[in-house]
Amino acid sequence: RTERLLVRFRAYGPADPSSFTVSARLLDRVGHVMRDLALSPAAERGEHTIDLPLAGFAPGEYAIEVKAASGAREASERTPFRITY
User: Fold this and answer.
1) Which of 16, 20, 32, 69 is spaced 20 to 30 Å from 10 by Cα?
2) pTM of the entire structure?
3) In what order do the strands lie in the sheet with 47-53?
4) Closest CA relative to residue 68, chosen from 8, 18, 9, 22
């Protein structure tokens, strides 16, 4: 069981990258937070990567929630996925 889920995405914000933050969390099928996910910045500005090993997961439905925040403004997006064996 060496499968991995690799997610790459871009987050856009103010010209100063230190003025906004990007975070990601793993959610179960009902939307409860399972854990925070580590983000690896890519070579290009604003690009991020999540590398999630799937070996420890039971078959089922999950989602990744990505949030970008700058001051009082916040945007989020959820991407569902299913693990089957």
Assistant:
1) 32
2) 0.84
3) 4-10, 47-53, 40-41
4) 22
In sequence order, the β-bridge partners of residue 59 are none
- Residue by residue, DSSP assigns 28-82 as -TTS-EEEEE--EE-SSTTEEEEEEE-TTPPSEEEEEEEEEEETTEEEEEEEEEE
Q: Are 1 and 83 in contact (CB under 8 A)?
A: no
Phi-psi map region of 43: left, alpha, beta (phi>0 left; psi -120 to 50 alpha): alpha
Q: 9 and 59 in contact (C-beta within 8 Å)?
A: no
pLDDT in tens, 15-63: 666 677 889 999 999 999 999 999 987 666 778 999 999 988 999 999 9
